[in-house]
Design brief:
heterodimer, A: 335 residues, Alpha-Beta Plaits, 3 domains, six-stranded mixed β-sheet, four-stranded antiparallel β-sheet, 13 helices, 14 strands, B: 234 residues, mainly alpha, 12 helices, 81% helix, globular
C-alpha cells in the first residue's frame, strides 16, 4: 500500500534521512519508532508530499507521489506533529473547510458528525479552536485526518498532549481504524507502539535500524540466543559438559546463587535451539535443572541499544538491519 | 481554491483586520468627498481619487501581510500542501480573498458619488475609470504583496517590504524622466504602473492597460506558487 524506497533527505549539510526504505501492507498498523530528531516527522512529511526528498521515491497504492501528487494526497489523511488548525475558526467551520479542501464526496453532515462522534469532539463542535485545550486540539487534528475517509492514515505522534484516559481511547480508535485503513503512526513512546502496532520500524539518525513484527522483533533480532539456567551440581564440570554440546558457542558460570546451585549462561549458534539438549544433558548427568529461560532482549532493551550511542552510529548503511541489531546487542553486552 | 478563498475571506472578518482596512478607506473616501462638497465643484473628483489612490497603496500591505506568513508560522500550510489542491490554487485563493477585501473597500468609496448623483451629475465616466483603475492597480499590488508575504514568516517584514515596493512603483515615473539614456528611460516608463493607471483616471477604459495589470497579477501569482513549491525542497 505504502512503499518507501531509498528516501534520502538533506537539510543543507545535515543528512536527515539516509536511504530509508520500508513497505506497509494494506490494512496494517505500522509504528514508526525512534528518539526525537531521528527523522520520523521528515519521513512522514515526505510521504504526505509536504516535503520532497533529496532522492528516493514513495509509492502509495502503486502511484508515485511525484508523478500523481493530487491522486496520492487524496488517499492520505495526515495528522502532522503540530495539528494544522486555524485558531480563528470554530471546530465546525474548520472541519467544513477541510472537507471542501479535500474535495471529499461523501454526505457532508453525516460524515462530519460520524467523525466527531468517533473522536469525541461533539461537545466542542461550535467552539473556537483557539480556546480548546491541547487534548481537544489534538482530537480535532485527528478528526481532520479522517475527513474523506482516506485509505491511508499517517499520524505523527497522535497521543501527544492527551490525558491517560484519552490516550487509551485514541489507541483503541486507531486500532479500530486499522481494520479498514492502512495506518502509519509515529511515536517515541515504546509502550504505545507495542500496544497499537502490528509492525515496528525503528529509525535512528535517519536510518532504519530494525523492521519487524511487534511480537517477534526482539526475538528475531537477538540472533545469538542465550539461555539462562540454574542447575544443582559441580560448577566446573557443568560448564565443561555444556561446552561439549553441539551448537554451543560459549558457556559461563555466573556463580553460586543458592547452596550448591549455580547460575549459568549458554550461548548458542544463531538459529539453534538448545533447550532440549541442555535438559537432556543435565538429566543424564543427574544434575537437577531448576530454572531455564531464553535471554531474548525485551523490546525496550532493543530499542535502547538500537538508538543509543556508538552501537547505532557505527554500522554502515550497507548492512542489513538484523546484522546491525546483533552488532548493537554485542556492543551492549560488552558494557 | 474556493475553500481557501472562503476561509481567507472569513479570517479577515473574524479578526478586525478586514473591518479596519475597509473602514479606514471608506472613511477617507467620505472625508475627501466632503472636501469636494465644501469646494462645491464635482471637478475636484479627480483629486479625491488621486489622494485616495495613495492611501489605498498604503492599506494594501496591511491586507496582504498575513496572507502567506500566518500559514507558515502556524504550520497550517501542512494542511493546505498535503491536501489534493495545487499550489497555484492555494495562491490564487489567497490572492482573490485579499483582492475581494480591497474590492469591498473601493466599492464603498463609490457611495459618496452615488449620494452626490441625487443632487448633481458627477462625471461617472471619470469616477468609474478611477474605480476600475484603482482595482486593477490594487490587484497588481496585492499580487506583489502576496509574493512578499510568502518570502517571510514575519507580518511586519512583509508589510514594510510591500510598502516600500508600492511607494517605489508610485515614484518610478519620476525616475524615467531623470534618466538620460533613452532605452532605459523607455523601459522604465513601459514598466511603470502609473502611466497605465493614468489612462483610467481620464475616464478611458484601456484594454492594453487592463491586460498589463492582469498579466502582472498572473506573473506574481506564478512566482508565489513557485516559491511555495520551492519551500518543499529546502
Amino acid at each position: 500500500m505504502v512503499e518507501v524506497r531509498n528516501l534520502t533527505k538533506r537539510y543543507g549539510s545535515k543528512l536527515a534521512l539516509d536511504h530509508v526504505s520500508f513497505t506497509v501492507e494494506e490494512g496494517s498498523i505500522v509504528g514508526f519508532l525512534g528518539p526525537n530528531g531521528a527523522g520520523k516527522s521528515t519521513t512522514m512529511n515526505i510521504i504526505t508530499g509536504y516535503l520532497s526528498a533529496t532522492s528516493g521515491e514513495v509509492l502509495v497504492s502503486g502511484k508515485n507521489t511525484l508523478d500523481e501528487p493530487q491522486e496520492v494526497k487524496k488517499m492520505i489523511g495526515y495528522l502532522p506533529e503540530l495539528p494544522p488548525l486555524y485558531m480563528d475558526m470554530t471546530v465546525k467551520e474548520y472541519l467544513n473547510f477541510m472537507y471542501e479542501l479535500k474535495k471529499a464526496r461523501l454526505p457532508r453532515e453525516k460524515h462530519l458528525s460520524e467523525i466527531c462522534k468517533l473522536v469525541k469532539i461533539e461537545n466542542v463542535y461550535n467552539r473556537l479552536i483557539g480556546n480548546l485545550s491541547k487534548g481537544y486540539k489534538q482530537r480535532v487534528g485527528i478528526a481532520q485526518a479522517l475527513i474523506g475517509n482516506p485509505p491511508v492514515l499517517i499520524l505523527d505522534e497522535p497521543t501527544v498532549g492527551l490525558d491517560p484516559k484519552q490516550i487509551i481511547e485514541i489507541r483503541t480508535l486507531i486500532k479500530n481504524l486499522g481494520r479498514n485503513h492502512t495506518v502509519i503512526l509515529s511515536s517515541h513512546i515504546l509502550s504505545e507502539v507495542q500496544a497499537v502496532c502490528e509492525r515496528i520500524v525503528v529509525i535512528n539518525n535517519g536510518r532504519v535500524v530494525a523492521d519487524g513484527a511487534t511480537d517477534t522483533l526482539a526475538h528475531d533480532l537477538s540472533k545469538d540466543h542465550r539461555l539462562l539456567l540454574r542447575a544443582e551440581g559441580p560448577e566446573r564440570e557443568m560448564v565443561h559438559a555444556l561446552l561439549g554440546l553441539p551448537h554451543v558457542v560459549d558457556a559461563v558460570s555466573l556463580g553460586e546463587k543458592e547452596p550448591g546451585v549455580f547460575e549459568l549462561t549458554v550461548e548458542s549458534e544463531p538459529d539453534a535451539d538448545l533447550r532440549r539438549d541442555v535438559f537432556a544433558l543435565l538429566a543424564r548427568k543427574g544434575w537437577p535443572l531448576l530454572a531455564m529461560k531464553n535471554m531474548d532482549l525485551t523490546l525496550e532493551d532493543l530499542f535502547l541499544q538500537l538508538t543509543s550511542g556508538d552501537a547505532a552510529l557505527a554500522h554502515s548503511s550497507g548492512e542489513t538491519s538484523s546484522d546491525e541489531a546483533e552488532e548493537a546487542e554485542q556492543g551492549g553486552n560488552e558494557e | 481554491m474556493k475553500a481557501i478563498f472562503k476561509r481567507e475571506l472569513r479570517s479577515y472578518f473574524n479578526a478586525p483586520v478586514g473591518y479596519v482596512c475597509i473602514a479606514a478607506l471608506a472613511a477617507l473616501y467620505g472625508y475627501f468627498y466632503y472636501q469636494v462638497m465644501a469646494l462645491g465643484s464635482s471637478g475636484y473628483i479627480r483629486n479625491v481619487y488621486g489622494t485616495m489612490f495613495s492611501f489605498s497603496m498604503i492599506v494594501i500591505p496591511i491586507i496582504t501581510m498575513r496572507s502567506m506568513t500566518d500559514d507558515q508560522k502556524n504550520k497550517t500550510d501542512q494542511a493546505l500542501l498535503t491536501a489534493p489542491v495545487s499550489v497555484t490554487a492555494i495562491v490564487t485563493g489567497k490572492f482573490l480573498a485579499c483582492w475581494f477585501v480591497f474590492f469591498i473597500a473601493s466599492t464603498l468609496g463609490l457611495l459618496p458619488a452615488v449620494a452626490m448623483s441625487f443632487f448633481s451629475s458627477p462625471a461617472w465616466g471619470e469616477i468609474l475609470g478611477n474605480y476600475l483603475g484603482t482595482l486593477l492597480y490594487g490587484g497588481a499590488m496585492i499580487s506583489i504583496g502576496v509574493l512578499i508575504s510568502s518570502l517571510t514568516v514575519s507580518q511586519i517584514i512583509a508589510a514594510i517590504g510591500t510598502f516600500v515596493v508600492s511607494v517605489f512603483l508610485m515614484y518610478i515615473d519620476n525616475l524615467a524622466t531623470a534618466i538620460s539614456n533613452k532605452t532605459v528611460s523607455a523601459l522604465v516608463s513601459w514598466l511603470s504602473f502609473n502611466s497605465r493607471y493614468t489612462t483610467f483616471t481620464q475616464g478611458i477604459f484601456s484594454v492594453s492597460s487592463t491586460v498589463f495589470f492582469l498579466s502582472v497579477i498572473a506573473v506574481f501569482l506564478f512566482l508565489t506558487a513557485r516559491r511555495l513549491e520551492s519551500r518543499r525542497w529546502n
